């Protein structure tokens, strides 16, 4: 007889059966991952845990000859005198994830796919070259590298973002008036201080964030912006600036007494949804290109005016809700925005003529005080 409270043999078997059924479902219905317009499956692999080894490939597997549900012409594989070869452009900051701790990831990839993987020296931009005697092995290695790099790219802090600048003098002046009046009337409310407010020279709308790790990726983003102009932006704008109004404030959480972000609302002056359409289509195109991660179904058009992240990091303006390095909720001191929302519900920040979408560089400043621009799409 088992001791009181201990599971019976029948219970153990039932749990085992349930576990096996769960594993079977995982095998039959593996997670699908989209990378650059292609679809990969994430197979279930039981491997020893290495909690300290950040460069592991997280269980992604595609064995020799296994195209991971991919057509074998998904990328170019060249036939050589000694077998087959495939080249893949990889930004140098990502080399370490293919190499792994003490070279273990690279060695495992080579052993399991029967290939040789050549990686440029750290800091040198170039191509990773995969060679092998079997075409299937080369394809398998390339597939695994693609999935591996996609996983670790998502963990990189973003470097750039698409933005509309809201830096007209009228808007800056009205924003400073808003700041002065909030501090005058609400400074006794919990958490309210001058450190919460945005830099007026960097007021903007954020459309989406990007991780661009070398000049080639920046150039690719700039080229995509110009194609977007030709494909749909020029038609939506008619080649003219968009007149928008910045008015009213809103908060981004469930309890106004525990607010982390307060933003100004933005709307087209003519009441149309052209600005929303441009924002949504731009993000859709950048997500499809693999340069941007999809976070929301629609872009939230807003201009941050107060943010608790600014207390500790004035450069945190553009940190997205899922970006690595974000301060945890425990590190953020929320503020009570109830009175601010009541007193400034309809505060008018001014009218803006939006005439360009900018590819802005994070943690940078140009001569005007705004973010440095790596490229832009001009409406006119």
UniProtKB/TrEMBL annotation:
Matching entries from CDD domains are given as:
KH-I_ASCC1 (cd22419)
Any one Gene Ontology cellular component term annotated for this protein = nucleus
| Residues making up the signal peptide according to the UniProt record | none
Does the keyword field hold Phosphoprotein? Answer: no
Molecular function per GO? RNA binding
Which residues are in the K Homology domain? 82-150
Which terms are listed as keywords in the entry?
RNA-binding
From its record, what is one biological process in GO terms?
DNA alkylation repair
Q: Protein name, please? A: Activating signal cointegrator 1 complex subunit 1
Source organism: Cairina moschata
